[in-house]
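Lab notebook page, bench 4
Experiment: in silico fold of construct C2
Operator: M.H.
Input chain length: 119 residues
Purpose: comparison with the prior construct
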Amino acid sequence: MSSFQDDLDDLESAEDFLRYFGIPYDPRVVHVNRLHILQRLRDYLDKEDGLDALAEDARRARYKALLELAYGDFVTSNAITEKVFKVHKEQAKAQEGRFVSLDSLTVRGFTVTDSGKAG
């Protein structure tokens, strides 16, 4: 009889995890976001307190719930919006100061007004 931890150790891809836990998934979503899904699962697991103290069935159920949550994040969003990896976080931080207000735009002597019309 294999333990839950042994089973986890044998899983390699996002698809392996989703199949193991019996979570239906869209292969297109997983294909584009597989590493992001696994990293998000890791992030969620890292925030869990007392996970190792749970009985194996309860631990398995919690992993499944967190994997469903991680997968769901990318069904309704995308990797850039979710900012799972450091590169996305740094990119978002760099772009924080790049906002240009509509009021500051002028095109060859025309200024855009509040109504959105050039004047």
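Observations: The beta strands are 106-107, 110-111. Residues 20 and 108 are 61 Å apart (CA to CA).
Next step: discuss at group meeting.
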